[in-house]
Specification:
With about 400 residues, the protein is mainly α. The protein has a single domain, classed as Growth Hormone, Chain: A (Up-down Bundle). About 80% of the residues lie in helices and about 0% in strands. Helix 1 packs across helix 9. The longest helix is centred in the middle third of the chain and has 31 residues. The protein is globular.
C-alpha cells in the first residue's frame, strides 16, 4: 500500500472517536425517551465514552512504543467493532453506557497510534502539514456523520447507527491487516516499565512548550465539545429542529473545522506553528464571546448559534494540528507516549466540560455558550503566557 493510501487509512482511524460521537448525536433525545432516562444520564453515553477513550490512550501509547504500532492498533479496532455490536443490542441505558465504555477502550487506539505513525515517518514541519490535511479530511466526519446519523435514525432507528459503527470498525481492521506495515523501527524496551514511564511523563509535563501546546488544544477542544454535548438539546429540544436538520446544522459547524485545517495546511508553513495557533485561539475567543453575548441577550436562533460556532470551529482547525505537531515533534523516542498524554488531557478536559454543561443545563443555551466562551478566552490567554510572550525569539 502506498503512503498516500496509508495516510488515508490513518485519517479514518484517527477520526474514529469523532465518528463514534457525532453519528449518534441526533439520537440522544430519543435514547433518553426510549429508556426513560434524564438528559444528563443519556449524555453519559458521550461523557463516559470520552473519558474511557482518553484513559485508553495512556495504555496504547506505551504499548505501541514497546511492541510496535500495527498489531496494537489492530487489536484496539477489533475491540471497537465487537463493542459496537453490544451497543446496538443494548436492552437498557445502563448496558448501553457500559458498551459505549468498551467501544471507547477499543477506539482509543486510533488517534494515539495513528499520530505516532505520522511522527515515525515525518519531521515536525512535515508532520504539521500532514496533520492539517488529515484534519481537513477528518472534518468531513462531523460534517457528514450527524447528517447520515439523522437519516439512519429516522429510517431505521437509533440501533442501526451502532451496527454501522461496528461495521466501520471491522472494515478498518481488514484494511490495517491488508495494507499497513510496521513503522516503529526504534522500539523502546523500557516503555512499559513503571519507573521509566513515570520519568517519561515527568519529562513531558515539565517541558513548558509541551504543556503550552497540550493545554491550548485541550481548552479549544473542550469548547468544541461543549457544543457537541449540548447542541442536540439546544437545537432539537429548545429550538425544535428535526434530527435531520440538526445534522445539517452540525455539519455546517464542522465545515468551520475543515476550513481552519485547510488554511493551516495551506499557510501554516509560512506563518509557523505558533503564529497559526495564536490566530486560531484569537478566533476562538472572539467567536465564543459573541456567541455567549447573543445567548445572554435573549437572541436564540439557529443562525445565532451556528454562525459564531463556525468561526470558533475554524479557530479550532487552525489550532489542533499545529498544537499536536508542536507537542509530539520534540520527542521521537517516546512519540506514542507524548501523543497519548496529549490525547488523554485533551479528552479528559473535554469530558469534564461536557459534564458541566449537562449539569448546568437549564433549558436555555446559556450554559453551553458560556462554557464555549470561557474555553476560547482561556486558550488565548494560556498560549500567550506560556509560549508566545515568554519565548518570542524561538517561535516556530
Amino acid at each position: 500500500m502506498t503512503w498516500v493510501r496509508v495516510e488515508f487509512v490513518l485519517t479514518a482511524v484517527v477520526g474514529l472517536g469523532a465518528l463514534s460521537i457525532d453519528m449518534f448525536l441526533p439520537s440522544l433525545p430519543t435514547i433518553a425517551t426510549v429508556f426513560g432516562a434524564e438528559a444528563a444520564t443519556a449524555q453519559l453515553t458521550v461523557t463516559l465514552f470520552l473519558m474511557a477513550f482518553a484513559a485508553s490512550q495512556l495504555v496504547y501509547g506505551p504499548l505501541s512504543d514497546r511492541f510496535g504500532r500495527r498489531w496494537v492498533l489492530i487489536g484496539g479496532l477489533g475491540l471497537y467493532a465487537v463493542a459496537g455490536l453490544a451497543c446496538a443490542l443494548a436492552p437498557s441505558i445502563g448496558v448501553l453506557i457500559g458498551a459505549r465504555v468498551l467501544q471507547a477502550l477499543g477506539g482509543g487506539s486510533g488517534p494515539v497510534v495513528g499520530r505516532a505513525v505520522i511522527r515515525d515517518l515525518y519531521d515536525r514541519e512535515r508532520a504539521a502539514r500532514v496533520f492539517s490535511y488529515m484534519g481537513t479530511a477528518q472534518a468531513l466526519n462531523p460534517m457528514l456523520a450527524p447528517i447520515v446519523g439523522g437519516y439512519v435514525h429516522e429510517a431505521f432507528g437509533w440501533r442501526a447507527i451502532f451496527f454501522v459503527l461496528a461495521g466501520a470498525g471491522a472494515l478498518f481492521v481488514a484494511l490495517m491487516i491488508a495494507g499497513v506495515r510496521e513503522t516503529n523501527v526504534r522500539r523502546d524496551p523500557t516503555a512499559l516499565q513503571p519507573g521509566q514511564m513515570g520519568r517519561n511523563v515527568a519529562e513531558l509535563l515539565t517541558d513548558r512548550s509541551y504543556v503550552a501546546y497540550v493545554l491550548v488544544n485541550a481548552l479549544m477542544f473542550g469548547g468544541q465539545f461543549a457544543f457537541i454535548s449540548g447542541s442536540s438539546f439546544v437545537l432539537i429540544g429548545v429550538l425544535g429542529v428535526s434530527p435531520s436538520v440538526f445534522g445539517l446544522c452540525f455539519g455546517a459547524v464542522a465545515g468551520g473545522i475543515m476550513t481552519g485545517t485547510f488554511l493551516s495546511g495551506r499557510f501554516g508553513a509560512r506563518l509557523g506553528l505558533d503564529r497559526t495557533i495564536l490566530s486560531g485561539t484569537a478566533l476562538g475567543a472572539a467567536a465564543g464571546l459573541i456567541l455567549a453575548a447573543l445567548a445572554w441577550s435573549g437572541v436564540l436562533t439557529v443562525a445565532a448559534v451556528i454562525v459564531p460556532m463556525f468561526v470558533f470551529a475554524a479557530g479550532l482547525g487552525l489550532t489542533l494540528p499545529n498544537g499536536m505537531a508542536g507537542a509530539v515533534g520534540p520527542f521521537p523516542r517516546m512519540a506514542g507516549l507524548a501523543a497519548a498524554v496529549a490525547g488523554f488531557l485533551q479528552m479528559t478536559g473535554s469530558a469534564l466540560y461536557s459534564v458541566a454543561v449537562g449539569h448546568f443545563y437549564d433549558g436555555t443555551a446559556r450554559p453551553m455558550t458560556t462554557a464555549i466562551a470561557l474555553a476560547g478566552v482561556a486558550a488565548l490567554v494560556c498560549f500567550w503566557r506560556l509560549r508566545w510572550r515568554r519565548r518570542p525569539g524561538m517561535l516556530a
